What we know:
By secondary structure, the chain is α+β, with helices and mostly antiparallel strands. The chain has helices at about 45-60, 60-80, 80-90, 95-100, and strands at about 5, 10-15, 20-30, 30-40, 100-105, 110-120, 125-135, 135-145.
Amino acid sequence: MENIILLPNGDLLKYDELTEIFEGKVSWMGKKIDVMLETDPLQDDSAKVAEGYFKILLDEMEEWDSNAKSYVFGYMQQTFPEVMDKAFDVKKGEGAEVYPELELILVSPSGEIQFMFKKGYAFEDKTILALGHIFSGFNMIQFERLSEK
């Protein structure tokens, strides 16, 4: 297996032998985010498969970005309306600062995807994961508390 993946946009992902993951910073919607491609040591072509799935995300970046944010924001508004309403009142409707920012995308060779969001005003101490599959879209939200310093 090669130790570097060169993406069509010129970004590089490097293989970490300890975690068996390709990782790096990738340009996404005008900013750099972390990307991780999982591999399966029992499947020879798993890195190429995960890379292929990520290239689909890159090719359809605006759509995937919009779908992920809509899924997360819709879930937050439906599940925590009082928190979101208060956050909008405090920020005077400046929604961009209320919602978390996309920080990381993880892709597995089975096609599973995770979009990790952090740093939103309403949920400062949480990481929010939009989970799904490359062929069926997002289907679950998971919250994780950020580690304390």
